Amino acid sequence: MLSLEHGEAVIDPITHFLKEAGALPVHIAEGNALAVERHATRHKMAAMSIGWFRHAADMVVRDVEGMNFRTELVVLLGTAPNKAARRFYEFAKLRISS
Fold first, then answer.
1. Is the model's pTM score more than 0.85?
2. d(C-alpha 26, C-alpha 46), whole Å
3. Which of 27, 35, 43, 74 lies at a 20 to 30 A Cα distance from 94?
């Protein structure tokens, strides 16, 4: 599942839900959303998705009964952004607007 880099407010409720359901959450070394899905695909196991990105074509998406967590993706431009940050911000702004 996702790593703590996503914040305790996101991870703790998900971990609690999974453990209460009898699941054993697995934290991989690179715990971002895309890496988690890639790891799950390779090892043919379930994965938690935050729904911000398209999932891999060979993954089957299913809702989990009782799991009604919602997340939002927010892209902020800092006070001293570098060129790459500005490019990504402009890219995100265009994608969100369309």
1. no
2. 10
3. 35
Q: How many CA atoms lie within 13 A of 27 on its CB side?
A: 9
Residue 37 to residue 59: CA distance in whole angstroms: 8
CA–CA distance, 48 with 14 (Å, rounded to integer): 9
Report the distance separating Cα 68 and Cα 76, nearest Å: 26
Asked if 15 and 25 touch (Cβ cutoff 8 Å), the reply is yes
The alpha carbon of 4 is separated from its chain's Cα centroid by a whole number of angstroms, namely 11
Question: Which residues in the chain belong to E strands, given as ranges?
Answer: none
Q: What is the pLDDT of residues 48-69, one digit of tens each?
A: 777 777 777 777 777 778 777 7
Going from N- to C-terminal start, the domains of the chain cover 4-71
